[in-house]
């Protein structure tokens, strides 16, 4: 979804750091007072005026912008090959298969497992999810989960990396090539990532991300069609790398933009995440975003009992039968119904019998993050 924390991030963080985390207006006031106390006799000091805080202005990170221009330009070239039927039949199947299969690495892996700990997975499943996730090319799982935790905790504030209040374009892709707000940099440091630091699969992927990117994001998708069914190398590159990569990327971006803007709010009308069927279909169950922001620990990321619009839940349940996924957290239907009645916009259409009846998690579970419980208790609608 975006590059790693870059030098310019760090630069922005340095400015913030130098001030020991104080807000900018406090820094300016302090500088002002220091100047006055050191004997300055200007009217400025006499009047006790303070310098107005400098508003944050994002700068373009040119390498990231060029990367986005390249992959989106490459998407168009790949699309041209596809619509003019210059690609071989198996290349269509391979590309479609990769988009769907590797997307599970994002939804069941980086999102529901590594960002939210909404279920637990044994190492063979974690390895499989990491393999699929890496093929998507959306940064390493640690960085992805790190930003996603910040997004949930500080949703739609200056500290939200893709704050939808800054507009559709920023939430969709602008945040990827603009310097982050100093609040994002500061809050990233406050997020506990110790669970992922203890996961060797996560840390290995982070450590060897660049060679893995070359091998699994470009090499494997491009060389398989070239070697196995004689696809032209150029067609394989623009279709199976840039077209495929950018398709998956934009589906993920839709969750940050569309699913924060266009839809209904059955569970909390006071927040901007919404339920959006189109995003749910494209992102294999990640479009039920109003529910997800209210109950982020639910491994289903929705209330649906049906797998039709939530393929990822079907995938996790399937591996739960094998014993590779376990401790799936859910929310009791009566809690959901109560919350919807209290805070929703009245559009909850599911009756409780369609919600999962085998809920294994809810209030009183020791795994509930304390801040989540506090947030629910504090909720005023
Ligand atoms: Zn989430
Ligand atoms: Zn969100």
From TrEMBL:
GO molecular function: iron ion binding; stearoyl-CoA 9-desaturase activity
InterPro entries in the record: Acyl-CoA_DS, FA_desaturase_dom
GO cellular component terms, semicolon-separated: endoplasmic reticulum membrane
Cofactor: Fe(2+)
Residue span of region Disordered: 1-50
Biological process annotations from GO: unsaturated fatty acid biosynthetic process
UniProt comment concerning the protein's domains: The histidine box domains are involved in binding the catalytic metal ions.
PANTHER family per record: ACYL-COA DESATURASE, RH14937P
Protein name, as recorded: Fatty acid desaturase domain-containing protein
Organism (species): Anopheles arabiensis (Mosquito)
């Amino acid at each position: 979804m975006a590059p790693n924390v870059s030098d310019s991030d760090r630069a922005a963080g340095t400015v913030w750091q130098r001030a020991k985390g104080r807000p900018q207006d406090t820094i300016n006031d302090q500088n002002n007072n220091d100047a006055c106390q050191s004997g300055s006799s200007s009217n400025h000091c006499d009047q006790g005026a303070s310098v107005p805080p400098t508003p944050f202005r994002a700068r373009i990170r040119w390498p990231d912008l060029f990367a986005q221009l390249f992959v989106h330009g490459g998407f168009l070239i790949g699309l041209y090959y596809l619509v003019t039927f210059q690609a071989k039949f198996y290349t269509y199947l391979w590309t479609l298969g990769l988009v769907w299969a590797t997307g599970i690495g994002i939804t069941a892996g980086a999102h529901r497992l590594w960002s939210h700990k909404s279920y637990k997975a044994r190492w063979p499943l974690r390895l499989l999810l990491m393999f699929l996730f890496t093929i998507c090319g959306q940064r390493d799982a640690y960085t992805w989960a790190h930003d996603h935790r910040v997004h949930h905790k500080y949703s739609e504030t200056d500290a939200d990396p893709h704050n939808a209040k800054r507009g559709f374009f920023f939430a969709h892709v602008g945040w990827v090539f603009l310097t982050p707000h100093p609040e994002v940099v500061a809050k990233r440091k406050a997020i506990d990532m110790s669970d992922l630091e203890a996961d060797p699969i996560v840390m290995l992927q982070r450590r060897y991300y660049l060679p893995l990117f070359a091998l699994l994001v470009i090499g494997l998708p491009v060389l398989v069609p070239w070697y196995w069914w004689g696809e032209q190398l150029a067609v394989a590159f623009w279709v199976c790398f840039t077209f495929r990569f950018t398709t998956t990327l934009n589906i993920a971006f839709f969750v940050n933009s569309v699913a924060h803007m266009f839809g209904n709010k059955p569970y909390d009308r006071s927040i901007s995440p919404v339920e959006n069927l189109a995003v749910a279909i494209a992102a294999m169950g990640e479009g039920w975003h109003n529910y997800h922001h209210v109950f982020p620990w639910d491994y289903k990321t929705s209330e649906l009992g049906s797998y039709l619009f939530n393929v990822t839940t079907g995938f996790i349940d399937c591996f739960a039968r094998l014993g590779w996924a376990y401790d799936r957290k859910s929310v009791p239907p009566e809690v959901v119904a109560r919350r919807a009645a209290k805070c929703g916009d009245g559009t909850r259409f599911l009756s409780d019998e369609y919600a999962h009846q085998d809920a294994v998690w809810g209030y009183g579970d020791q795994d509930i993050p304390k801040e989540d419980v506090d947030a629910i208790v504090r909720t005023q609608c």
